[in-house]
Design brief:
Structural class: mainly alpha
Largest sheet: 3 strands, antiparallel
Organism: Ureibacillus xyleni
CATH topology of the largest domain: Arc Repressor Mutant, subunit A
Number of strands: 3
Keywords: DNA-binding, Transcription, Transcription regulation
Strand order of the largest sheet: 1-3-2
CATH architecture of the largest domain: Orthogonal Bundle
Radius of gyration: 17 Å
Pfam families: HTH_27
CATH superfamily of the largest domain: Winged helix-like DNA-binding domain superfamily/Winged helix DNA-binding domain
Protein name: DNA-binding MarR family transcriptional regulator
GO molecular function, one term: DNA binding
Number of helices: 6
Strand content: 5-15%
């Protein structure tokens, strides 16, 4: 299956570019969208929860959250531990989520055009399996 990574990375880059263009009218990028998406789907969360989910450093998520606060899409509220902050969507953040989600769904539909339902399902099921294999490989390196 030589060339798989090259094809995947080309696809990934064009999708990210399309997503960034789509969300630019909201002053969002895909990396900021990831935080909004996580909070909307998993509820109010800590920086650690979000950084663990996306496998990125906490300072990276902190910068994203600060930018989303500036845009008034999220707020931080005190957690159980006073050092812990819970991030949640504002009313504006909820509205922006709905608008972007609709546009992203349309983009997803367009990029899957020409694929049969079976091919779409296989693709949808295959990508998480590949990610899981990568994560297992990384875990075995750290042991």
């Amino acid at each position: 299956m030589e060339g798989f990574f090259q094809n995947y990375l080309r696809l990934y880059r064009s999708l990210i570019t399309s997503l960034n263009e789509l969300m630019s009218i909201y002053q969002l990028s895909y990396s900021l969208w990831q935080v909004i998406f996580y909070i909307k789907n998993y509820g109010p969360s800590t920086l650690v929860d979000i950084s663990n989910y996306y496998n990125v450093e906490k300072p990276t998520i902190t910068r994203r959250v600060h930018r989303l606060e500036e845009l008034q899409f999220v707020v931080q509220i005190p957690g159980k531990d006073r050092r812990e902050k819970i991030i949640q969507l504002t009313e504006l953040g909820e509205q922006i989520y709905k608008e972007c989600r609709t546009k992203i769904t349309n983009l997803e539909t367009n990029v899957m055009e020409g694929l049969s339902k079976e091919e779409q399902i296989i693709t949808y099921q295959t990508l998480p399996k590949i990610q899981n294999n990568i994560m297992k490989r990384e875990d075995s390196k750290s042991e």
